[in-house]
Amino acid sequence: MATYEALTILDFQNKFNTEEKCRKHLFHIKWPYGFICPQCGNTTYYPIEKRKLYECKACKHQTSVTAGTVLHRSHIALHKWFWAIYFVAHDKRGISATRLAVELNLSYQAAWLMLHKIRKAMMDCDAHYQLTGIIALDEIYFGTPIEGVTRICSRDIIPVVAGVSLDKQGRPQYIKMDVVESTIKTNQSQGLADFVDKHIASGSTINSAAYRAYMQAVTSGKYPSGPLLLYDKKNPDQLQWLNTMISNAKACIAGTYHGLGTKHLSAYLSEFCFRTNRRRVAPELFNRLLYACTTTVTITYQQLIVRNIPGLT
Ligand SMILES: [Zn+2]
Question: Which residues have their alpha-adjacent CB atom under 5 A from ion ligand 1?
Answer without folding.
Answer: 37, 39-40, 42, 56, 58-59, 61
